[in-house]
Write a structure and sequence with these properties.
Blueprint lengths: L1 H14 L6 H11 L6 E2 L1 H13 L3 H9 L2 H8 L7 E2 H6 L2
Antiparallel strand pairs: 1-2
The structure holds calcium ion (CA) (2 copies).
Length: 93
C-alpha cells in the first residue's frame, strides 16, 4: 500500500517543492483547490491527478490508468476528514 503514498508524494513533491518554485506551488494548490476552502476533496484531488497526467507526469498517468484516485487520496488524507490539506501533503515528504 505504500506504493500509493510514494506515487502521490512524488507528484506533490514536483508541484509543492520548496525553493524557487515555492510561489508557483502556492498557485498550483490554489488552482487545484477549486472552492478555495484550503483543502482538496476527492473531486479536486482527481482533477489534480488528471491535470498532472495530461501534463505527462508518469505517476499521475499510473493513478489515472488504474483508477487509484480514492486509494491515493485516502493515503494522503491522514486525519480522514475528507480533505487533503497542504500540511498533509507536506507531511509526506
Ligand atoms: Ca477545496
Ligand atoms: Ca485531512
Amino acid at each position: 500500500m505504500s506504493t500509493f503514498k510514494a506515487i502521490v508524494a512524488s507528484l506533490f513533491a514536483i508541484a509543492l517543492t520548496a525553493g524557487p518554485i515555492a510561489a508557483h506551488a502556492q498557485e498550483v494548490f490554489a488552482k487545484v483547490d477549486v472552492n478555495g476552502d484550503g483543502g482538496l476533496d476527492l473531486a479536486e484531488f482527481t482533477g489534480f491527478i488528471d491535470a498532472a497526467a495530461a501534463a505527462g507526469k508518469p505517476n499521475a498517468k499510473k493513478i489515472q490508468a488504474n483508477q487509484f484516485y480514492a486509494k491515493a487520496f485516502a493515503r494522503v488524507d491522514k486525519n480522514k476528514d475528507g480533505l487533503v490539506t497542504k500540511n498533509e501533503i507536506a507531511a509526506m515528504r
